[in-house]
Amino acid sequence: MNSLIKAVAVALVIAAPVASFAQSNQPVTRAQVRAELVQLEKAGYNPSASDNTTYPVQLQAAEARVAAQNGTAQAATSDVGGVANGASQSGRPEVAAGAKSIYFGR
Hints:
Pfam family, one: DUF4148
Signal peptide: 1-22
Protein name: Purine-nucleoside phosphorylase
Structural class: mainly alpha
Mean pLDDT: 74
Keywords: Signal
Organism: Paraburkholderia ginsengiterrae
Shape: flat
């Protein structure tokens, strides 16, 4: 019985990566790509008017509008790609009020 459990566990470990692929291996047809582009253009995306700095934001906004029209929330919750929100700063760290530098007095 113990060897049966080990064999099942090994089979699950080997089969898990195969089952984790969510994409299909079938190629997308030209008609499907064209239909998606037409749908994005109807949602307000203009591929000829965008530049490299506004391309991702405009495309993602159009995809979100298409997803809202289709009733799917995939575009907003996708784990792939996207733009991180937030900010970053550089420079020296802020010193708390009343704190002295480690080099104070030398």
